[in-house]
């Protein structure tokens, strides 16, 4: 199943009273700024001495009220930074980078033998310009 039609959190968690739930469309590209730091004191398996210290989703909602896969992972998974570090090679230096167009494919499990899963499509990072991150970091 590609892109998720429209998922509301009450469909997952059963709370139908939450009327202002965001709807998600995983085909909707989202742009994310990431702040990468040198954390040589605590190296990690994906990026060695570098890690994402902070991130900011630049395009959280479309005009029709849909958010994308990056917003979903940050809100409900809480590990967008780990998804990025697992999908992309470490940058050459600390800094602020832009990832344009993160999407995902949602795989709906059968509830018995297979779990729900998301496969992220994360384009390469590019150094962000001061105009892109002004007021964010």
Question: What are the main properties of this structure?
Answer:
disordered N terminus; 5-stranded antiparallel β-sheet; alpha+beta; 137 residues; two-stranded parallel ribbon
User: Which spans have pLDDT < 50 for at least 5 consecutive residues?
Assistant: 1-13
Ends apart, CA distance between termini:
36 Å
Helix content: 10-25%
Average residue-wise pLDDT? 84
Structural class label: alpha+beta
One letter per element, helices H and strands E, the order comes to: HEEEEHHEEEH
Q: Shape from CA axes? A: globular
Q: Oligomeric state of the chains?
A: single chain
Radius of gyration: 16 Å
Overview of this protein structure:
This protein has 137 residues and is of the alpha+beta class. The protein has one domain (9-133). It has helices at residues 9-13, 69-77, 80-87, 130-133; strands spanning 23-24, 30-38, 50-57, 66-67, 95-107, 117-121, 126-127. The strands form 2 sheets. Strands 2, 3, 5, 6 and 7 form a 5-stranded antiparallel beta sheet that branches. It starts with 8 loop residues before the first helix and ends with a helix.
SSE diagram, text form:
Layout: H1 9-13, E1 23-24, E2 30-38, E3 50-57, E4 66-67, H2 69-77, H3 80-87, E5 95-107, E6 117-121, E7 126-127, H4 130-133
Parallel strand pairs: 1-4
Antiparallel strand pairs: 2-3, 2-5, 5-6, 5-7
Task: Offer a quick outline of the entry.
The chain has 137 residues and is of the alpha+beta class.
């Amino acid at each position: 199943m590609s892109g998720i039609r429209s998922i509301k959190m009450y469909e997952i968690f059963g709370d139908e009273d939450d009327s202002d739930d965001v709807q998600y469309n995983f085909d909707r590209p989202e742009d994310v700024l990431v702040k990468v730091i040198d954390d040589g004191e605590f190296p990690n398996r994906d990026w060695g001495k570098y890690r994402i210290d902070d991130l900011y989703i630049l395009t959280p909602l479309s005009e029709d009220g849909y958010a994308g896969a990056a917003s979903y992972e940050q809100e409900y998974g809480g590990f967008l930074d780990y998804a990025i570090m697992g999908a992309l090679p470490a940058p050459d230096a600390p800094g602020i980078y832009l990832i344009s167009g993160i999407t995902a494919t949602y795989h709906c499990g059968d509830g018995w033998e297979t779990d729900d899963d998301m496969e992220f499509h994360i384009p390469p990072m590019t150094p962000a310009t001061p105009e892109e991150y002004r007021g964010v970091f």
